[in-house]
Amino acid sequence: MGESAGAGSIMYHLTSDDDASKKPLFQQAILQSPFFFPDQGRTRSEDVARRFLQLSGVSKLSDAREIQAEALRSANYRMVLDAPYGQFTFGKAFCYGEPYNSSKSDLPQKGPIVDGGYIKQTPITALQRGMFPKSMPLVIGHNAREGIGFTYPWILDDLSFGTYLAGLFPDASPATLSSIYTTIYPPVRSIPELSYNDDLDRAALMTSEVLVTCNTYLLALAYRNATYNYLFDVFPGLHGDDLHYTFGPDPSTRSPEVQLAIQSYITRFSQTGDPNGNGQPTFRRYGGGNEVLRLSTDGFEGILDPAASKRCLLLRDRGLI
Known about the structure:
- By secondary structure, the protein is α/β, with parallel strands linked by helices.
- It has eleven helices and six strands.
- The protein has helices at residues 5-14, 42-56, 61-64, 69-82, 123-129, 158-168, 174-184, 199-222, 243-246, 256-272, 310-317; strands at residues 2-3, 29-32, 138-143, 228-232, 291-296, 299-304.
- Helix 6 (158-168) packs parallel to helix 8 and helix 8 packs across helix 11.
- The longest helix has 24 residues, at 199-222.
- The chain is globular, with a radius of gyration of 20 Å.
């Protein structure tokens, strides 16, 4: 069971071995808001190591193992300081006031990397290729507003959105960036059916889908819609808000009913592989209707998964997630 990066780690473990016939590391899993950044490639990840050694005042990893803890803390602090908005540890830094310039920072995004050893491909690529244990029971959750806390809040216009986009995909070609900008997340009011009203909402939606919600949708598709998916929609529904309900009792929660339901579903699933029982509303599988169980102060209902978006398929097919 994992939340955020913990759930992202579960996805990496699920897809770590390209021999799908091998016995998996675990028998079932609960993934709450699986979070990770798009793979930045081995070269950029090795740049992190070089930068860390430079800040530590040594030239080799073996030397770094011998230096004082205070020097390591100082190097870590500097790398955290260099990370962009919405990131809290090793990450590439870029200026939001101008296009990404790799000469200003050689730090890639945080997260696991494809190393050719344990991790041979990104989780989304592995899911698409069928490289995962096929019969594993899964509960998968995401929250209503996953992207807001990771989105630079001063995106006020089309230009600043474009800069943010280039930072999220620093290795993307100009043609790819243009495609994302015009086709996947087109400008505000360019077509009537857009689900965002300004460029900040546009960026928050992109952040949510790239980092979290497309992972939940594509994982369900890979498992032939046999997973149990829920949407945590208790206001404000930010990334991580469901933890207060998962590990209660917590007096700060807005809905004791939602808290009891989440804990009941998790307990039943852990015991039996099926979240249903204990007198709670029926938790149906994702199914062909892409149904999630919406948990809110208004009650519980099965609805069409808002993460089930064509945008996720386009991002996947273009190798962007």
